[in-house]
Amino acid sequence: MNHLLERLGGFAARRFWVFIAAWVIILAGLLGARHAWGGSYVNDYTVPGSDSSTGLNLLNSDYPQQGGYGGQIVFRARSGTVADQQSAVNQATSNVAKLSGVIKAVSPFSSPNSGAVSKNGTIAYSSVSWSNNPDGLDTSYLNQLNNAVAPARKAGLEVQYGGGAGQIGQSTGDTTSEVIGLACALVLLLFMFGSLITAAVPLVSAIFSVGAGLSLVGLLAALTTFPSVAPTVATLLGLGVAVDYGLFLTARHREQLDRGMGVVSSATRAEGTSGAAIVVAGSTVVVAILGLYLSGVPFVGAMGLAAAIVVAVTMIAALTLVPSFMGLVRSNVRSLPDRVRAHRAGISPQEQARRTAVATEEHHEQSGFARWGRRVARQPWPWAIASVAVLVVLAIPVFSINLGQPDNGTNPLNQTSRQAYDLITEGFGVGANGPLTVVVKLPKQSSSADQSLLSSMSKGVASTHGVASVSPTSTNGAATVAVFNAVPTTRPQATATSDLVQTLRDDVLPKYHATAYVTGTTPGNVDFTNQIASRMLLLILVVVAVAFLLLTTAFRSVIIATKAAIMNLLSIGAAYGVIVAVFQWGWGASLIGVHTTSPIPAYVPMMVFAIVFGLSMDYEVFLLSRVHEAWVATRHAHRAVAIGIGSTARVITTAAAIMVAVFLSFVLNDQSAVKMLAVGMAVAVFIDASIVRMILVPAIMSLLGEHAWWMPRWLEPVVPRLHLEGSEAAAAAPGAAAMAGSASRPAGPGRGGSA
């Protein structure tokens, strides 16, 4: 693989216009195709084979008038009662019923005891069902809906859209977050490289790759269902890894130029070393995210697929477009002060770099980061214990995590879905926002027996603790399926509501010896949460196993792979704890625009684990490969740690800061789940790059010493050889010889041999 990457990097640096032109054509073509044939994004929380899914399928097939996806049109009288404007409400409901995709729309005045008019008469709602999920409908459909309800608004009524109706045309743009994230990345890259040209290389590559990846996802959305949050998550992750991968390659290239290497030779070497590390790290990210299909929930798997596609495209762009830019900018990738000094001295940049190569290598070992590494290595036990203690304390809130799907009561106050939620709560009780639909498959018996069965079942459900009311029963024309609604006393996201769903399924309905299902939005969310929670352990085991195999192959050490898995679990656990503290306990939530607590959507911990576990491999590979390079050259464990940290800490810190900035920019998104992902991933990356990489890794590596690179003999011939950043070939490169040569010098404090 290394030789293939080297040939690719060298060819791209020499024929840079070919690759740049190809990427321009690819991006333009995908953007045009997305505009012409791209699909839309729809949230489908259905869990195949679940009780709610089976019940909904039965309704859709045998009683379609009661099936579909529900929503409410909520009316409030500013003065008097809604009944005063009954004709306007009926006209609005009739107009809505004529819209495309609407199965039915029932006016609150369709019957005297509809239960859709509040006791004081000031609030009422029409029930509407769509054949397809309404949150996939765009703003043009929202305009049609607004026109349909115009008679009610003209009559002076307030009109809001609840349930699924509140999701129509509510897509959130991420342009502001993207601009802020890229601007922060540019500032950080300028600070690191001191060159606008150098800083532009990772950024331009990121724009190309993320744009192409999102366009590809948009095209695939015409063939399969992607959640509405999928492009946001893909952008959030894609921007972070794209800039990081470009940074890793550019930093390695810049360092090699500073040692006097030629541009094409440096691009070739960077591709064969850092490029190989990117392949391993990026592949880990892709595999980890695709592991979300283990959840058994199409919604989560599709979200992972969208993110994996964008990450894969960013990896390809890093391996082709970045070396092309290296060839384009030539030696201008070096810092401006270095180029100015070379010009004043009347020598070429390459000659200047050759003269300072040894000093550059010495700087790595004597830098502030390297001194920090030696300080930790001198007292590894206290530092290791302290850092683990911090991570454990941060993870404590995880033990009180409440998994569930937030209801519309957690939406921003300016959204129509939140306003409709509050109106229904005021007029009918909080449980009316999430009625439970009971679907009964009637046995083949007399109509009187069916009526007796349904009457008993309805009374049994109504007498169940936690049920506020039960609607009249409706039966299809063939008398094969009946349906009625049960309104809980608690809000949809409450644990008590989830318990009620399970009680009805497990204890109440089975008493009547008839096939019955509890379906609807709230039971569907319960099934969604239970399914994901039941698969979480499987995902963790699979992702850890895959990462273990990749790291064992990369470093030929089972100790390194085991250490990485344990430390990643610690940092992710700490990130989980912060998510719970902020969003479930409300600590500091108002700082990011969250003004109400909520349960944690089950897919958020799963997404955070898959993404962060993969991302942490970037820093693991980048740091430990340099430590291994120094170990091969010096055979001094403590010194290898110092050199590895000294040569990578600045890059890792900058990369992590860019990731954190990009992730946190997405807290501007209105969706609470996106905020959770942004905060969780930002915290995890910050912890990983600071506590883990700068304290825990050097402490553990110093304690392990030469044993860190242990590999069972029987595995040696089985595991393939990869030459990453710290390969033997890299260790033999110019500059590494200086490390090896200076190994004979007396070791100062902290330069001891193997621990």
Characterization of the model:
This protein has 755 residues and is an alpha+beta fold. It contains 26 helices and nine strands. β7 (474-475) and β8 form a beta hairpin. The longest helix is centred in the C-terminal third of the chain and has 35 residues, at 521-555. It is elongated and about 95 Å long. It has helices spanning 2-14, 16-37, 51-62, 86-97, 139-148, 150-154, 175-193, 196-220, 230-258, 263-290, 298-329, 336-345, 349-355, 357-366, 368-378, 380-395, 416-428, 447-462, 495-508, 521-555, 558-584, 603-634, 637-665, 672-704, 728-731, 736-741, and strands spanning 69-77, 102-106, 123-130, 157-163, 436-441, 467-470, 474-475, 481-488, 515-519.
